[in-house]
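Posting this for the archive.
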Amino acid sequence: MPRGPFHLTRQELERFRINRSGPVEKRKVLAHLLAGCEPCRASAREVFFPQTLDYSRMFDRLEVAFVDAESAIRAERRRGEELWHLLEPLDATQRLLWVKNDPRLYMWGLYNLLLNEGRKIIRQDRGEAVGLYHLAWMIAQKLDPEAYGDTRVRDFQGNAAAQLGNAKRLYGDLRGAEEDFARAEELLDLGTGDLLERAYLLGARATLKADLGFFDDASALFRQAVSCARQMGDRHQEGTYLIAWSSATGWIDPEKGLELAKRGEARLERGVDPHLELGARHLQAACLGELGRTAEARGLMEACRPLYARYSDPVTQGRLLRLEGHLARNEGSLEESEGRFRELVALYERHDFDFDLALAAVELADVLSLRGKLAESAGILRGLYPLLERLKLHADILRSWLILQEAVQRNAAQEQMFRDVAMTLRQKWLRRPAPATLPIG
């Protein structure tokens, strides 16, 4: 008998029956039934098989099949790890050629490992992550439907396309991301109807819409992703999408962003993803700062310093520097604020984060103007303008940038002008066109 007094609800059993359970709930339901809880087995018979028959042997066979499946999965994972040890030392082109020409690599174990490796490095090296996701996509297209099931293979392909698209989005290839997301939707429509895969695609598409400045569309997609997670009974996944929604919304509507981040954090399973927990608290601090609740924001940020220190990637450290700069500015510590924004500009220059660099340059120019360093403020804006031209950005960005630069030179720049340029950057930035060859070999 299973330990503990709990029993499965009919809603949990019904979600399991129609393949709408989240991964955590799915494992809980299956393990509980196989452990031999007779009241829950009886409920499961009523939900799964409405006719009054003896299905005890079926549960016994299910237990054997479950053990066999677990053994097969472990074997595939081990084989995937062995193959990755051979692939890992190669450069992108060598990996691509090997995967393209060797059918022995076409297995779920390697496909799954490549997705996991991509997730590990995407914050540090977006280009490398694109390459790994592309290999996973190539393998997914070659998986044997007879071995894995036709609809499940479609799920694998759809998931690989969605994750490749999201990596391209982060890399700056927005057109490529849109194409991959459309391909993922077509494939998932042919799959098992797995809500987990559907929710991920909705969340990724929502973030892309936000990147492109279509915020109403982004909110609608995030709302659907949250709904999918709720249907699965997966509170942690629901929290993940609420936090992503907050990230896309908070700088437009900090009150709404704060509410979403709080709701998202409350749904997270503690300890599963500390970086996500940090993200939720960071967003709350940023929104509090925007709302003028600087002391609360400062207290929350300082409480999170041990978590910030665990992540050295430029995205996380850049978020901290920006928050420190904004809070110091709110507190009137302009010298400290200037120092933080100088560090931020240097960080983004080192890592070629063009959008983030442009935004940080506006923020630094704002603080320099407040300190009376008008020539240096105008010089920063003037020095970055040729890059913006080369990137062929929206005309509104170039126009507002030049207007701000001229106003600073004439000592006529108002505070709202800096905020307006930052808003225009966020709303209308189209990252540099995709490189002729992405880093996939």
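The chain is about 75% helix and 0% strand. The two ends are 54 Å apart (CA to CA).
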